[in-house]
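Quick one - inputs below.
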Amino acid sequence: MRKKLFNISILFFCYALLYLPMINIIVYSFNASKITSVWQGFSFKWYKAVLNNPNIISGLFTSLKLATISATVATIIGTLAAFALVRHKRFKGRNIFESMVHMPLVMPEVITGLSLMLFLFWLRDFFYLPAFSGITPIAIAHITLGVAYVTVIVRARLSDYDMAVEEAAMDLGAHPSKVFFRITIPIIAPSCVAGWFLAFALSLDDVVLASFLSSPESTTLPMVIFSSLKMGATPQINALATIMIGVVLTGVLLAGLYMYGKQRKAMAKEAVL
Amino acid sequence: MKQQYLSKTTWRKWINVQKLSIKIPYAWMLLFLIGPLIALVSISFSEPAYALPPYEAVLKYVEGTYLSLKFHISNYIFIFKDSMYATVFLRSVYIAFLSTAACLIIGFPFAYAIFRAPPFWRNMLILLVVLPFYTSFLVRVYAWSSILSANGPINSMLMSLGFISQPLQLLYNDAAVVLGIMYCYLPFMVMPIFVALQKMDRTMLEAAYDLGCKPLRGFFTITIPLAKKGIIAGSILVLVPAIGEFVIPELLGGSRTVMIGRTIWTEFFANRDWPLAAALAISMFLLVIVPINYVQRANDYNEDEVSNKNQEADHA
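Output:
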């Protein structure tokens, strides 16, 4: 009993540490006072200010566009890379390939951002190639990072599943492409979706790579938040952060409900059988 | 029964299509990962100049018909001569180690407590650990800067209780940076340790208890050694990004908390010394990232070895 109490108190302390800072932000986002941490009554005015702030809104749209593009491309390339690593046990340069794909996971973002930025300049300066503009350089950096994560996730799924299913289909005369689209894709789809969401979240969250690679017309939302935090926090940031926390919580809750529903369906099916 | 057996050409064509799965990612990574690294190395050996771009390229096409190739190692010499950079490197490593230790001190009991919780609750508890990780990184850092600020909740609580008459300066020092890194990277520590604990063979503990081992001794001689791999994996996951961390020292650290990431940033953006920034990045990569990667390899290798041994034991 004493052990149990001890366990619960550790858990309580740790979750308090994780969640109190968030709760602090949420509470103060409804504060009427202009000073972030002096309570002066309830108000929604900072939410209105956020919605009317053109920098935040345009940053949000840039970020969403960027995250969608880079997550999609990263999922395609990452899935291909996972296939290469699982299905082709031996090809020229496999070790180099594997370490290249994993490299972005351990490289500090400052190095990745700096090197890509210098590379793009180098291309323009030395080979007289046109410099990329807009969000393209940031997208390249985010895709490279996303590929690494997608590969890890899809690879785990791909090396788990039973190849005999595919072989059986082919023995029964199915064309390899049909096997691929009817069997392989449906099996790895959940991991591709998970990889897509992870790449999307990484892209949406990144400030370092974006700062190195941005041009004036491509300011992402994290960059807007970062520069306003450096100038001194405004209560608007509290409201914006609360909105972001709310969106994430809703998303996770919906995903959780969906999974729960699926699980129950599967269990019901089993019960019937 | 249209087609019982596939023709050889169909197979060959499909294999060629499959080869594309190697070629496309390979080409992407060579172009946008190795290419930039080559550019980084090349520019770290070039001479700074007042121009746009602000460096004299190593390999250059000079008016006339020849290429000139000039290597300047002055950037590296400058880094090794100026004691400031050595201080910056040591300080980054020091702060990263402190943060990793803080993460471990909170993270291990946390993972252990989740592991000891009733199985019904475990998934929920793990989800709750990862959940803050899904909110923006900046939001999490900002949360701490608002808590620690001069008129934040901690200071106002201490003042209203009468412990202090003036707000304490809690922000903009090393401790705030360590706290920030600990908070942001906690899930990276908790998850591997939890996974390692879950893989643990519980019968070993029971056997030890049956033989008269005290729970505390069992914890230190069985549980912790078995969780060692998770502890090392988690520590690397925290240590590596912490060394290169830029955002947290920038927002929570003071002017004295200069870490490598921040120095590279300043050299690049404020001083516009691109060659020096590149040389710093290369030095950081060689001095810090490569050794850590080596430790990680050794950790993975041990895992393989252990599982192989176990399999052999099973066969025997």
